[in-house]
Amino acid sequence: MLENVKAIYEEINHYTVASKEQLEQFRMRFISRKGVITELFEGLKTIPAADRRAVGQELNGLKNLAQERFDAFSQHVDDQQTSANSAPPVDLTLPTVPNLTGTQHPLTLVRQRIIQIFERIGFNVADGPEIESDWYNFGALNFPDNHPARDMQDTFFVDKKDNDPSGDMLLRTHTSNVQIRLMEHQKPPIRSIMPGRVYRNETISARAHCMFHQVEGIYIDRNVGFKDLKDTLYHFVKELFEPGTQIRFRPSYFPFTEPSAEIDISCQICGGKGCNICKQSGWVEIAGSGMVDPQVIANCGIDPDEYTGFAFGMGIERITQLKYVVNDLRLYTENDVRFLRQFEGL
Ligand code: DAH
């Protein structure tokens, strides 16, 4: 009998319970009236009276152990149950959390749109250096040394020689440098647009920045006239801006074009009635343009008697400002997602 008791001690001590079902099995085997311990108590009657007391004590110890273990196991199973209940329910029918993807920067969107419009009418895309020599940024474009026209564009110099601009290196102030590089290396017909960054020594404010983007355009071939310039830019404005946008060419001056014109469109904000953006005039300037000066064509080794052409240049920030009513240039570089998210899906 004592051996049986010992074996059951062992069994209880090694018992583990991980679920409600196993807890119930434990109860049935050791605690319930039909369990092994009750059976042992019943067996007490058959034991000689002299030993009964000692065995009875052993059995009571066993009964207490079984009860203690049972209490501990039920606590454990309860804890497991509550932690499973407090976990969020999994609803497998829910759509997955959307993958947050970035959006395209408004300047990228507008640059791509401009490229698309010009590519459709036969322009290709060209590129040139941002660190440039004085010759490509100024000299070849007819800015004579010490000419006041150079003051139109406040230049960041990388390397500046006193009294001799020809050796200067600078951050390009416009994308017109790429016109020169193209004409030097290609035979007409040349029909390209050249998007890129430009730099000017300006204090950063809502209206000015020391780094911005331009798109330059050039078309050089036989018999290219001012009408071609007008047609091309009319087409561009019609494609990019709202239907009904008006366009006008206003006489202007650039050292590298003759004649030169600035291109205005009717204000996108007030529709031409007059507002803060257009300074009450109803018109806003979007680009400079003109017929490429024969001297510039000759500077690049092309015969200006055989070839003529037009060129234009526009600021991408400016076009974006008009198209999407962005009133502060600094928004483009601050990376504020509240601003950037507004261009999602455009
Ligand atoms: N380079 C000029 C600027 O930055 C813009 C410009 C005007 C470009 C006339 C041209 C042009 O190609 O023909 O202000």
From TrEMBL:
Which major enzyme category is it?
ligase
What are the required cofactors?
Answer: Mg(2+)
Protein residues bound to Mg(2+): E258
| Catalysis: reaction(s) | tRNA(Phe) + L-phenylalanine + ATP = L-phenylalanyl-tRNA(Phe) + AMP + diphosphate + H(+)
Tell me which SUPFAM superfamilies the record gives. Class II aaRS and biotin synthetases, tRNA-binding arm
Q: How is the cofactor bound?
A: Binds 2 magnesium ions per tetramer.
User: What Pfam families does the database record attribute to this sequence?
Assistant: Phe_tRNA-synt_N (PF02912), tRNA-synt_2d (PF01409)
What HAMAP family does UniProt report for this protein, alphabetically?
Phe_tRNA_synth_alpha1
- Name of the protein this chain belongs to: Phenylalanine--tRNA ligase alpha subunit
Q: What is the lineage of its organism?
A: Bacteria, Pseudomonadati, Bacteroidota, Cytophagia, Cytophagales
